[in-house]
Structures are given as C-alpha cells and as structure tokens.
Design brief:
Blueprint: E1 5-14, E2 17-25, E3 35-38, H1 41-44, E4 53-61, E5 69-74, E6 81-88, E7 107-114
Length: about 120
C-alpha cells in the first residue's frame, strides 16, 4: 500500500478551525482509488496534527516538468484518514494514475482545513 509522506509548511487557526499547508512526496506504490494521506497528530506533530479533517485541496505541485498529477481528496472512514486520488494530466482521458506506479519523485502541496 502506498502513502504520501507529509512535511508541515505552515499552520494557523481561526474560529476553532485549523488550516495547514503541507508539502508531501507521492507514494512509492500508488493504490487504485487513492493513497492514504494521514494528517493526524503522529504524522504532522502535535501543533499541526488534526483530529478531524473537513477538506484537503491541492494548491501546488513541484516542478511542472516532472509532476503531471492532480490530486483530489476522498474522505476516509475515520476523521483523519483520507485518500488522495491522482489523475494523470498527460493521459488523453485524464485517467487515474496507474496502480502500483511510483510517484515518489513527485511533490505536492496541499491545504488542509479541519480541527
């Protein structure tokens, strides 16, 4: 199973909500239907960790020459574990990334909103 590897970039709070921007490298083995992005306390540290995620949006990519994927958030069964489904922007049909493909050379920037 693949997983994104997040690193905290910045965190802030407003009216009980928390917003964090993270940079994450893609999974070494992408999962059909999306790979997990864990934004809980253990993944991001106590200051930036979330107990509930309201939404995640991709706001940037690494080098345009090497990053041809667009990530969309799919909420998970728990308040923390959601998946990022990658769409291949170079495919004629904007198809999902190929199962088990190595996405670890790609970087993504996500905006996470929650508590």
């Amino acid at each position: 199973m693949g997983a994104f590897t997040p690193t905290v970039v910045s965190t802030g709070t407003m009216a009980g909500l928390k917003a964090t921007t993270i940079t994450a490298t893609g999974p070494a083995s992408y999962d059909t239907g999306g790979s997990i992005l864990d934004v809980g306390t253990t993944a991001l540290g106590a200051e930036a960790g979330f107990t509930q995620v309201d939404g995640i949006m991709q706001i940037g990519i690494g080098s345009a020459a090497t990053n041809t994927m667009d990530g969309k958030f799919i909420p998970g069964a728990s308040a923390l574990l959601g998946k990022i489904m990658l769409r291949d922007l170079t495919a004629a049909s904007d198809a999902e990334a190929t199962s088990t493909s190595d996405q670890s050379a790609k970087t993504f920037r996500f905006l996470i909103v929650g508590r």
